Amino acid sequence: MSENVKINRGLKGVYFERSGVSDIDGAKGELSYRGYSIHDLATHSTFEEVCYLLIYGELPTAGQLADFDADLKAARVLPDEIHAIIRACKDGHPMDVLRTCVSALAALEPASQQVGEEAFLANGVRLTSQVPMIIAAHEAIRNGRDPVAPDMTLGHAANWLWMLKEEKPSADAARLADVDFILHAEHGSNASSFAARVTVGTEANLHGAIVTALSTLAGPAHGGAAEDVMKMVHEIGTPDKAAVYVKAKRAAKEAVTGFGHRVYRKEDPRARHMREGVRKLGEEMGAPEWYEILQAVVEAMSPYARHGLNVNVDFYSGVIYQLHGIPMDLYVPIFAIGRMPGWVIQCIEQQRGNILIRPLTLYNGPELRGYVPIADR
Ligand SMILES: CC(=O)SCCNC(=O)CCNC(=O)[C@H](O)C(C)(C)COP(=O)(O)OP(=O)(O)OC[C@H]1O[C@@H](n2cnc3c(N)ncnc32)[C@H](O)[C@@H]1OP(=O)(O)O
Ligand SMILES: O=C([O-])CC(=O)C(=O)O
C-alpha cells in the first residue's frame, strides 16, 4: 500500500485551505491583496491603508483610516520589562531578540493570552506597532543609547526610521520604507504564514503564532535572503566579477541568493518596485555601483530565467537598507515589520472555522522488532 502513496515533499503544489486575503499567479508573475494589484497599492497606498485592507477586507474611508491610525499610534507602548530583556540579550541577533520580546509580551500583557477574533484583532494591532519599537530599541541599546520615544506625528514607516536613527527621515526615505512594508505585507501560504496557521490550528493565542512565524521567517531560504544578497554583493565587489561568481555557484550547484521562488515562474512582481528604488536611491546618493553589481548578477543569471529562475522580492531590498545605513542583521526584522498584517489576518482567517493542521509522514524506518534490554545491546 505504501508504494502507492504520493508524497508531496515540501507540500509543493498542495492546496490546504481557501483564503480571501491575497492571490498569487505564479505563471504570470502577478500578486494582489484583496483584489487590488500590488502595483496599484505600491504606487498609491500607504502601509496603514494596506494593513486596514488586509485585515478588514476593504480599503478604508478617510474616517476609518484615521481611527485605525489612531489605534496603531495608541499601541506604540512597550512595557519597561521589555527594555530590561533587550538589555540582557543585547548582543544577540536582532531576530532572536525580537522573537524573545514578542514571546515575553505574551507573559507580560494579560490580554495577549486571549483567543477569539476580537482578541486577535486587538493583539494584532498592538503587536504591529510594538514590533518596530522592539527592533529600534534593541538597535539603540546595543549601541549604548537609550531607546528613542515614538513620534506620534509620524506615520508607521517614518516613525520606524525616526526610532531607529533618532533623525527625522526625508519624505523620500519614509516613502521608500512605506513601499517596502506594503510589498512585504502578505504573500499567501509562505512558510512563516503557514507555520503561524499551524500554531493557531491548535487553538493557541496570536502571540504564540507570531513567535512561530518569526522563527520561520529567519532562515535564508525565506526572510534571510536580503541579508545574504548583501553579503553576495560585497563578495562580488565590482560588476565585472558577477559572471565569474554566478558561474562558480552554478558549477557547485549552490543557490544564487535572491533568485528562485516556490510559486513564481516569472519575475516576482514586487521586485520591480524595489529595483526602481535601488536605482534611484543609488544615483541620488552617488553610489550607483550597488545597482550595477545587482544588474550584472541578473545578466549572468539570464540563461536560467527561461527555466523560471528569476529575482524575488529580496534581491533588491538589502541594497536599499544598506544605502540607508541600516546594519545587515536588521534586514530580516524589517521584513517582519512589513509582514505583521499578513500574519495577523491569516491567523484570524485560520481561527474562523478552525481545524487542526496535521498531515501525515509515510513511515520508512525499521520493521517492528523485539525490545532488547540495555545490558544485552
Ligand atoms: C521572501 C522569500 O521568501 S522569497 C525566497 C527567498 N530565498 C532565496 O532567495 C534563497 C535562494 N532561493 C532558493 O533557495 C529557492 O529558490 C527557494 C527555497 C526560494 C525555493 O525553492 P524550491 O521551490 O524548493 O525550488 P527548488 O529548490 O525545487 O528549485 C527548482 C530548481 O531550481 C534551482 N534553483 C532554485 N533556486 C535557485 C537559486 N536561487 N539559484 C540557483 N538555482 C536555483 C534548484 O537547484 C532546482 O534545480 P533542479 O531542478 O535542477 O534540481
Ligand atoms: O511566498 C513565499 O514562499 C515566500 C515569499 O515570497 C514571501 O513570503 O513573501
TrEMBL record:
Catalytically driven reaction(s): oxaloacetate + acetyl-CoA + H2O = citrate + CoA + H(+)
Active site positions, chain numbering: 261, 314
InterPro entries: Citrate_synth-like_lrg_a-sub (IPR016142), Citrate_synth-like_sm_a-sub (IPR016143), Citrate_synthase (IPR002020), Citrate_synthase_AS (IPR019810), Citrate_synthase_bac-typ (IPR024176), Citrate_synthase_sf (IPR036969)
GO MF annotation: an example: citrate synthase activity
Keywords: Transferase
Pathway in which the depicted protein is active: Carbohydrate metabolism; tricarboxylic acid cycle; isocitrate from oxaloacetate: step 1/2
Xref: Pfam families: Citrate_synt
GO biological process, one term: carbohydrate metabolic process
Family: Belongs to the citrate synthase family.
Protein name: Citrate synthase
